[in-house]
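Hi R.,

Here's the chain you asked about this morning:
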Amino acid sequence: MSKIFRVRKILCRCIQMMMVVVMVNGWDVDGHEAVGMVAMSALDGRASNQLKRLLQGKDAVEDAGWAHKAESAIPWSKPLHFIQQPEPFSNTLVINDITCPDGQCLLEAIKIFYDQAKGDTSKSSQKDRLMRSATRLPVQVTDADAVRFLINLIGDMHQPLHEGSLTDDFGRKTLVALPNGSVMSLYELWDHDIIQSTIQNHPQFWWSGWTHIQRVDTNTYNADKKAWQEDNTAALTKWCQENAEFANQFIYTNPLTNERFPLGGDAPIEVDAALLDKWRQLLIQRILLAGSRTAIILNDILESSAAPGLRSGSIVTPPVADEIEIDDLEFGNGQPPRRRQRLDTTSDILLQLGVLAVVVVIGLAAYLVFMMVSKSKGKAGEAGGLRLPTVVQSKKEMLD
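And here is the predicted structure, written out as tokens:
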């Protein structure tokens, strides 16, 4: 083993240990922030400028979790993060099979926030873009909040269990047992644990810059963009149906054996390392796809002639608190929400900032060593021992 390789291994281990210290309180919006990073990398210049104006200096990463943070102030928004399919395993699932009581669901919410953010509809070309949602909000949100909701909800749409089945309450009533001995709901595994375990066990991968539009297949991105430009309502409906079918084919069914899982039973489903790794790869694909589609929608809204007329501000005043519930666990019949601990004292904040500074320094050193090793080999290897998946659409390609 070369000296450089030993140094690199030690540095990576140090980063991993430090990240565990930093994340003891839980970073429950990491998935949404990753989606935001992909989206920002694909935003055109004009759209990016308009977004930062609307969000008062923030972007799709910083406000990625806003809709979840704001739930305590606007509890009527909780159902808008989900859409229910009555039965899993349907091979002929159509969008009409997915239930949306009184228009209060994920698909209809995206439509209404898109219609508002689209701005001036006096022109016939703009009117043709309207989706005419069945949702009726109890209060009128600001234009900026409509954009914030879109950023968050498009990410939710690509977490397939947000379009899960009533049979097991979006995966909350189905337990899984992981190789490390922990037991949790299928929903929590997909909504939180896979991401956090990846950050803790493979930090050099998570922070390696994979959240970029270049990681999305060009043909896939261009096809989605063309579909949105031709008929945005049909494209959104297709994406929603795709993710509901994904839940059936790859989460409620073992993608390695094609065996359907028993849902809602007392005994947990055994998840081995191979299945967990496959789910991690598929989750990363969903994040990349969510980010690319978020960018398509934001570019459509923010590059229009009406964009400068969109107003900033928020219906949530004062600004949302630092405390955040794990992504929607409180909606439905799930477990009580876990919350991020507040930093109530100056000493707590300084301690966290100090730890973060150490992580940044170690990370920079590790990156420099990694680049030296990569140059000596002529190319960089797979980040963190994880294979970065290509975003694909067909079931056959996903299983390969």
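One quick note: Residues 28-348 form a domain with the P1 Nuclease fold (CATH 1.10.575.10).

Cheers,
M.
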